[in-house]
Amino acid sequence: MNDPLRFETISDYNAFNNNETLHPLVSVVDLSKAAPRQGSRMYFGFYTIFLKEVKCGDLVYGRHTYDYQEGTLVFLAPGQVAGMNSNGETYQPKGYVLVFHPDLIRGTSLGRHIQEYTFFGYQSKEALHLSERERQIFLDCLAKIEYELQHAIDKHSRKLVVANIELLLDYCVRFYDRQFLTREHVHQGILERFEALLDQYFRSEKPQTNGLPSVAYCADQLNLSPSYFGDLVKKEIGKTAQEFIQSKLIDVAKDKIFDPAKTINDVAFELGFKYPQHFSRVFKQRVGQSPNEYRTQVS
Fold first, then answer.
1. What is the CATH T-level fold of the domain 5-185, as seen in this structure?
2. Whole-prediction pTM value?
3. How far apart are CA 17 and CA 27, in angstroms?
4. What's the chain's average pLDDT?
5. CB 65 within 8 A of CB 51
6. Residues 121-170: pLDDT tens digits?
7. In contact, 96 and 32? CB cutoff 8 Å
8. Per-residue pLDDT tens over the stretch 207-254
9. Which molecular function GO terms apply here (predicted)?
10. Which of 125, 169, 214, 284 is the most buried (most CB within 10 A)?
11. Under a CB-based contact definition with an 8 Å cutoff, are residues 281 and 253 in contact?
12. Number of Cβ atoms within 10 Å of the Cβ of 299
């Protein structure tokens, strides 16, 4: 497989797409100005948001293919590699890309909270599908950013550009919330599969060999990225995936504590804890009693 094209700077990516660089740290890229091309993999050294407006092959992230058709958004954090699989055919790109360098937002409110926009960590088949109204709102935000970039840089430029990027991202949070609700058929059964996965895990010998199940492990088993999986669980049941795992852990622990042939240390090791003290601390935090106190009470 060919090495990916590397774009470390905004100006490099602008040049590749025949767009003028108006600011060294941020750009609204019009892909219709780019020359026709075939699919390729690309490395991005900055935040990248694609709005695709024409069917031109599948967007590939790592080994996965995005659920990525006309009118969808994809978010990439710095250091990620993505590309277009055009099956060897030449196509004319169309759409818009917002790119901004981490240096643009350092020391700003957005810079302090950028990790809260978890969709930058979403991966395969987790793109944001926009309604026509949502698409127009997104384009309006891009227009405001571009308006600032068209003017000479002054003391207000950075503040206004960053504020509009933050506004755009906040809208995308709302749009994803809507998508979690309206695409229930896509997510149907995820929670049931999650609970079944945990039941199977604790019935096996995996806790003794692999330790406690992690959110990342469960997401991988369900073919979702950890960020998307965590957000989906939180929106469905109002608690985090880690809290759900701990609830299941405590339920299993309570059943095991009933067995008089097992010591508390036995129960801890069977559940995947390296240290019984850790198990006792977690159990007391969740139940309000130590494992021994709980055993005495229910016996």
1. Jelly Rolls (2.60.120)
2. 0.71
3. 12
4. 86
5. no
6. 887 568 888 888 999 999 999 999 999 999 888 889 999 999 999 999 99
7. no
8. 999 999 999 999 999 888 898 899 888 887 888 999 999 999 999 999
9. DNA-binding transcription factor activity; sequence-specific DNA binding
10. 169
11. no
12. 8
* Close Cβ partners of 156 (under 8 Å, ≥ 6 residues apart): none
Integer Cα distance of 85 and 42 in angstroms: 12
Q: Give the mean model confidence (pLDDT) for residues 277-294.
A: 92
pLDDT digits (tens, 9 = 90+) for 47-88: 999 997 755 444 444 434 444 444 689 999 999 888 766 566
Residue 6 CA to residue 286 CA, distance in Å, equals 48
Q: Which tokens hold the place of 111?
A: 């810079």
Specify the CATH superfamily of domain 189-298: Homeodomain-like (1.10.10.60)
Nearest Cα residue to 76 out of 37, 106, 105, 49: 49
Both tokens of 7, joined, read 């774009």
Give domain limits for the chain: 5-185, 189-298
- Distance between CA atoms of residues 299 and 287, nearest Å: 16
- Closest to 36 (Cα-Cα) out of 86, 71, 73: 86
Cα radius of gyration (the chain): 24
- Chain Cα centroid distance, residue 171: 16
pLDDT for the residue 2: 67
